[in-house]
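Sequence, please.
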């Protein structure tokens, strides 16, 4: 009986402390972070604005530390997992920068840009919560964390890491576009098609491409 009474008293004290915190309206400090698993780069059909996609299971975490008068009383941890699809495209400008030399055709394509907002599969979105106060604060923590997903994914889509990750897939798509459209034009009819070399205007060409930068005949 003493053990049961002790447990009841302990739970009562914790509830009183939590209610006191709510009454004093002390805003909890929340830290959020994001990580990725199972990234896959997939080439998309050529000849379209869309040049590449990246599929990834994204994970978002938050930890909310609760205090009363500066004294820690526990932490609520929230986590969301959701599949995301990053899509990238290039604007199909009216004019393309093309240079030919011998049997090669050098193409300077516009920079690849992310298609925003990043798509997520809400049907597979999963939320988790843990911590001493999670039965009371967990649902709100997950809801607050979910509201950060769109902005976090848009920020990640523009990072150099993802732009570099998709670049070769995008280069292959643009190469196929050029081969299907430019190389099929009348000037190359009946002749051996040139080797198409694609670079994006925001990447360094390198010294080995300098000889190719001669005006098209």
């Amino acid at each position: 009986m003493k053990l049961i009474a002790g447990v009841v008293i302990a739970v009562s004290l914790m509830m009183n402390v939590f209610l006191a915190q709510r009454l004093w309206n002390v805003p909890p400090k929340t830290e959020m972070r994001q990580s990725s698993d199972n990234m896959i780069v997939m080439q998309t059909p050529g000849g379209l604005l869309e040049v590449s996609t990246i599929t990834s299971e994204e994970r978002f975490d938050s930890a909310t530390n609760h205090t009363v008068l500066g004294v820690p009383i526990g932490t609520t941890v929230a986590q969301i997992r959701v599949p995301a699809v990053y899509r990238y495209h290039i604007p199909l400008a009216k004019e393309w920068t093309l240079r030919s030399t011998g049997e090669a055709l050098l193409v300077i394509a516009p920079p690849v840009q992310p298609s925003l907002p990043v798509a997520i599969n809400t049907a597979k979105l999963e939320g988790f919560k843990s911590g001493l106060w999670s039965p009371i604060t967990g649902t709100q923590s997950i809801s607050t964390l979910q509201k950060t997903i769109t902005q976090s994914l848009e920020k990640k889509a523009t990072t150099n890491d993802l732009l570099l990750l998709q670049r070769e897939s995008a280069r292959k798509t643009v190469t196929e576009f050029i081969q299907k459209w430019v190389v099929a034009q009348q000037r190359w009819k009946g002749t051996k098609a040139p080797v198409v070399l694609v670079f994006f205007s925001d990447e360094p060409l390198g010294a080995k491409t300098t000889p190719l930068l001669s005006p098209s005949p």
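Residues 2-212 form one domain.
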